[in-house]
Specification:
Helices cover 37% and strands 18% of the residues. By secondary structure, the chain is an alpha/beta fold. The strands form two sheets. Strands 1, 2, 3, 6, 7, 8 and 9 form a seven-stranded mixed beta sheet that branches. A two-stranded parallel sheet has the order 4-5. Helix 5 packs parallel to helix 6. The longest helix has 19 residues. The protein is globular and about 45 Å long. The model has no long low-confidence stretch (mean pLDDT 97).
Length: 190
């Protein structure tokens, strides 16, 4: 379980979820800012255009696992085997589409359990990743404090307000004097 990286290095980690809105502007912005991100994608939201996310790979981002179905109640509704199937099927889909099996998992809605931890491990991933800060509706929200801190993992989504959310993140990142680095590189699990 990783919610924040304990480090004194002036770094922050950008993570982007789901894959609902596929705007060419999002790729351009990420490339322009030279921001790598961990993309926690859901098969059901990207299956209409999985090739779109290859442009993010080219700019330094990595595709990670956010399940096939994005069932935010999977922890409460599903047992081990159904959770494992949903997670493992996304592993295989990501490998087929992007040539790499994800090493990190983000639970839909953020809820997890010991059963899910076992399913994630059995699917071959190294960690479950959550967050303490998020860019949402054009502003930053913090679970701890009121600014970005070294080692923060920031949550964003592929939504219509992607540009506004990224601008809010960028303002907070620059104000905190932090460098955006790829979480997988920092953890050595790329």
């Amino acid at each position: 379980m990783i919610t924040k990286i304990e480090t004194k290095h002036p770094v922050v980690f950008l993570t982007i979820d789901d894959g609902n809105i596929k705007s060419p502007e999002s790729v351009s912005l990420m490339t322009g800012y030279d921001y790598p991100a961990s993309l926690f994608l859901t098969k059901d939201t990207i299956a209409d255009n999985p090739a779109f996310f290859k442009a993010f790979q080219k700019q330094g981002s990595l595709v990670e696992n956010h399940t096939v179905t994005h069932n935010i109640n999977m922890v409460r509704q599903w047992g081990y085997q159904q959770q494992l199937n949903d997670i493992a099927d996304m592993q295989e889909y990501a490998f087929q589409q992007y040539g790499r099996r994800p090493t990190l998992f983000r639970p839909p809605g953020g809820a997890y359990s010991n059963v899910m931890r076992q399913a994630v491990a059995d699917a071959g991933m190294k960690a479950i990743v959550t967050w303490e800060a998020k860019a949402n509706a054009g502003k930053m929200d913090y679970q701890v404090g009121n600014s970005l801190r070294p080692g923060d993992i920031v949550l964003m989504h592929f939504r219509a307000e992607f540009a506004a959310d990224l601008a809010a993140f960028r303002a907070a990142q620059l104000a905190a004097g932090l460098e955006v680095v790829l979480l997988e590189d920092f953890l050595g699990v790329a």
